[in-house]
Specification:
The complex is a heterodimer of chains A (116) and B (114). Helix content of chain A is 0%, strand content 53%. Chain A has no helices and twelve strands. In chain A, a hairpin with a 5-residue loop joins strand 7 and strand 8. In chain A, the strands form three sheets. In chain A, strands 2, 5, 6, 10, 11 and 12 form a six-stranded mixed sheet that branches. A four-stranded antiparallel sheet of chain A has the order 3-9-8-7, with no helix packed on it. Chain A starts with a strand and ends with a strand. Chain B has 114 residues and is mainly β. Chain B has strands at residues 4-7, 10-13, 19-25, 31-37, 43-51, 54-57, 64-66, 76-78, 87-94, 104-105, 109-113. The chains are: A mainly beta (116), B mainly beta (114). At the A-B interface, strand 6 and strand 10 of A face strand 5 and strand 10 of B.
């Protein structure tokens, strides 16, 4: 079984400041990792994913994340945020060992609020 | 591009009533999912389907039923609604299995049971 811990439930930042949203996971098998974003009153949409290869993954809207296997982390970063980045961000993990291929385990979410 | 469409967007039910949340997708995806989202709890998988005629339980299936008669539609039925089913429900679809593929989500259906 997998679990995901998003260490901060809320992160307030000022516009143009850098931001890091933290995600740690626990799993007994190899994993794939994802970040999804949910804008107010909308469904989730994929921001980026790590399946294999380079541990630094670039996504949409200038976000990137780094997979760190030894620290079991997949933190999301953006060097300069905009007001429009205000949203809830969800880290998710799945099994890549050939087991449960239907299941994504989501974290509880981090609300990023960008203030002017 | 419609993507994943859910209806209704909002609904208030009385305890014991039943209803169906509708979900349809126009991307010809084989995989479809129903999640519920509770404040501060992330998303929990209720049911999923890998193709027409095939459905299976997720993490929290009790009190719900689904069917998948076509590729496009995946309705979620609530029988005997209870206050614990007050939540926001999201339908999603994907071309590949969820563990590798991108899920496309609808805008959600907010259900209140009083």
């Amino acid at each position: 079984a997998q679990s995901v811990t998003q260490l901060d439930s809320q992160v307030p930042v000022f516009e143009e400041a850098p931001v890091e949203l933290r995600c740690n996971y626990s799993s007994s098998v190899s994993v794939y990792l994802f970040w999804y974003v949910q804008y107010p009153n909308q469904g989730l949409q994929l921001l980026l994913k790590y399946l294999s290869g380079s541990t630094l993954v670039k996504g949409i809207n200038g976000f990137e994340a780094e997979f760190n296997k030894s620290q079991t982390s997949f933190h999301l970063r953006k060097p300069s945020v905009h007001i429009s980045d205000t949203a809830e961000y969800f880290c998710a993990v799945s099994d890549n060992s050939g087991g449960s291929n239907y299941k994504l385990t989501f974290g509880k979410g981090t609300l990023l609020t960008v203030n002017p | 591009n419609a993507g994943v469409t859910q209806t209704p967007k909002f609904r208030i039910l009385k305890i014991g009533q039943s209803m169906t949340l509708q979900c349809t997708q126009d991307m010809n995806h084989n995989y479809m999912y129903w999640y519920r989202q509770d404040p501060g709890m992330g998303l929990k998988l209720i049911y999923y389907s890998v193709g027409a005629g095939i459905t299976d339980k997720g993490e929290v299936p009790n009190g719900y039923n689904v069917s998948r008669s076509t590729t496009e539609d995946f309705p979620l039925r609530l029988e005997l609604a209870a206050p614990s089913q007050t939540s926001v429900y999201f339908c999603a679809s994907s071309r590949l299995a969820a563990n590798t593929g991108e899920l496309f989500f609808g805008e959600g259906s907010r259900l209140t049971v009083l």
